[in-house]
Q: What sequence folds into this?
């Protein structure tokens, strides 16, 4: 609890939720000379931030072309102005100026050089302190009070907070143990806002095929993943989306960046009917090129079994499963293989089919798809179109991104824009 009786204070800005978006919003508003209070239901700041990037904190993505950047988001066009004001370049400069050294890794992912999310959080804490942001810990907002079309005060479990303007940054429903339990949606609904049904996104996918459990723990890089909707009367077998990247097999299905990135759309498609996910293990080679490569290996190792030959360039368990799928004799000698059998192997390597059953729930989802309707938010200010003194930032709005630092960047950008707009 900050010094002074905050229950009787009237702040310029009250920020609800001390995740990445909330901390950025509070810092930005305070830096513009406002008295800001940051209200956090947990006993510490940034619990979810510490989990990002497997504890390394994937700060942002160094995609500086804004038109390309927005393509990595669901409803990304809404963010174009926020990115033009405070995009990846500005985010990197922001942290560098505060003394946090960064580095760029594969896929333009940006991390702190220390590989330590704690350092990112410490940097933000210091910035909050330097800008004299009042922080109230372990204090949950339970209700809001109105006067006309403005919020008059926030009711806490103990006491109340009054401010001239309010920024709601309570996150979505993913990782509820960190405090993101979706309560912010109820507050938003009370203010008259529409909530697009929240769903898990960036979540592992459960599949029907039983053989998947034999591949648990195997990771494949540079796989092309294509999603088809199979039983819509007017779209039988129509390609819905495509993604390339890393796949991780689990005992119940698939995970890894490529699988996580398609999961939100797969979840939506499953509500309409059966879906198929197809893997191309060699996307850089067409069938003729792959056939030539396989034939060269069969000639070179003419006396070896096909299982041993395939195991030379893929995990042995994967080779066995693929041969089981084809129905071919895994112990057949290479020299005895027919042209038809070679063709079957090539077709399988270029098109492994899986049937998704479900998307893992919010406890395993990295982000939430859905949230406050974008039609009710001014994209140039993050201000509510319904309540005159209310702004939004972060995962609570109906925008979500792919893996690779995109979701944190959305939090920095919308948090900055909301904080700056509240200061005007």
A:
């Amino acid at each position: 609890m900050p010094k002074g009786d905050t229950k009787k204070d009237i702040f310029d800005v009250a920020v609800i939720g001390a995740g990445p978006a909330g901390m950025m919003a509070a810092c930005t508003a305070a830096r513009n000379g406002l008295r800001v209070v940051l209200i956090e239901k947990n006993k510490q700041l940034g619990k979810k931030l510490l989990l990002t990037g497997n504890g390394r904190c994937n700060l942002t993505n160094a995609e500086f072309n804004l038109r390309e950047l927005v393509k990595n988001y669901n409803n990304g066009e809404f963010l174009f102005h926020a990115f033009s004001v405070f995009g990846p370049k500005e985010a990197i400069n922001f942290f560098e100026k505060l003394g946090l050294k960064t580095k760029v890794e594969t896929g333009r992912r940006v991390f702190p050089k220390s590989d330590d999310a704690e350092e990112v959080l410490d940097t933000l804490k210091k910035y909050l302190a330097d800008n004299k942001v009042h922080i109230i810990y372990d204090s949950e907002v339970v209700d809001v009070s109105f006067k006309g079309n403005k919020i008059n005060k926030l009711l806490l479990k103990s006491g109340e907070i009054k401010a001239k303007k309010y920024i709601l940054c309570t996150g979505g429903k993913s990782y509820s143990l960190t405090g993101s339990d979706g309560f912010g949606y109820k507050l938003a609904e009370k203010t008259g806002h529409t909530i697009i049904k929240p769903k898990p996104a960036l979540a592992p996918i459960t599949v029907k095929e039983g053989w998947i459990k034999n591949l648990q723990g195997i990771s494949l890089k540079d796989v092309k993943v294509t999603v088809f909707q199979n039983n819509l009367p007017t779209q039988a077998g129509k390609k819905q989306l495509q993604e390339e990247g890393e796949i991780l097999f689990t005992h119940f299905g698939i995970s890894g960046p490529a699988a996580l990135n398609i999961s939100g759309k797969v979840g939506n498609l499953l509500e309409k009917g059966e879906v198929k996910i197809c893997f191309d293990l060699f996307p850089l080679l067409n069938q003729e090129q792959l056939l030539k490569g396989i034939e060269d290996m069969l000639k070179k190792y003419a006396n070896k079994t096909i299982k041993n030959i395939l195991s030379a360039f893929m995990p042995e368990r994967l080779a066995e499963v693929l041969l089981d799928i084809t129905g071919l004799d895994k112990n057949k000698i290479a020299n005895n293989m027919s042209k038809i059998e070679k063709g079957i192997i090539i077709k399988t390597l270029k098109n492994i089919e899986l049937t998704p059953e479900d998307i893992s729930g919010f406890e395993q989802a990295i982000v939430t798809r859905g949230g406050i309707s974008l039609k009710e938010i001014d994209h140039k200010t993050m201000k509510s179109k319904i309540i005159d003194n209310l702004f939004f930032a972060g995962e609570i709005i109906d925008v979500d991104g792919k893996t690779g630092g995109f979701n944190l960047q959305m939090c920095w950008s919308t948090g900055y824009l909301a904080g700056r707009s509240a200061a005007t």
Remarks:
- The radius of gyration is 25 Å.
- The mean pLDDT is 92.
- DSSP finds twelve helices and 23 strands in the chain.
